[in-house]
Amino acid sequence: MITVPNGDFETLYKPSTAITGVVSAGGWTQGVGPECPIDTGGGVYEFSDATTGDLADIPGWLGYDRQGWIDNGGTYGRDQTTGNLQGSISSQFNHTDGGSQCYLSNGAQWGNPAGGLIVSADPLATVQSGLTYTLSMVANGRGGGEGATPFVLKLLADGVELTPTSSVQPVLGDFEWKEVSRTYDAASLAGSVGKNLTIVLGVDRGCVGNQTQFDDVSLEAIPEPATLSLLALGSLIAVRRSKRR
Description:
single chain; Jelly Rolls; six-stranded antiparallel sheet
């Protein structure tokens, strides 16, 4: 399993410290990233040192395609001087065992036709030959129907979207978490070996509907059967050579 920093959206810090915190019950943020403001009417940040505040560092993610968000009317009452204010970390819904938060974005029916997209703040790994990658998350609609659509889950290599060899893209229901996944086999990635992997997720530009929530993002790399056979053969040869000594 490849580590996806803050893939469960549970981690946030008091700015420029290691003091952890949470979004107060029922609250939500303005986007993700450093010094992320709490949304108007969205409560406060509650930190483990018994203080509260209206700014927090939310690691692991940044706003994606800032200009596209602005061009599509993505102000949503938010400051456009940073592209990190897309969507929200919310304490209203959660899928993680023992957790309390998820990422969400509203759609056009709730005043936000630009949706909200976030991207891994740093590369997660480099593409390795002989491996199949599976990118997964859970998603949940809200406000009736399918939530805000279309929703997005992408794997990028050096910033370029990869084409999955198979996908699970369910129709979302109201308050019903469903798994979403993308699989990329080794053959399809042959031209991307050595490139940096990042993840993009959220609600796309020109969206419709009310709101979609996201949680528990993961990325797994699995050796192809032929690669496993070569590894097994190599181990067997090593054992035989050892016995001859």
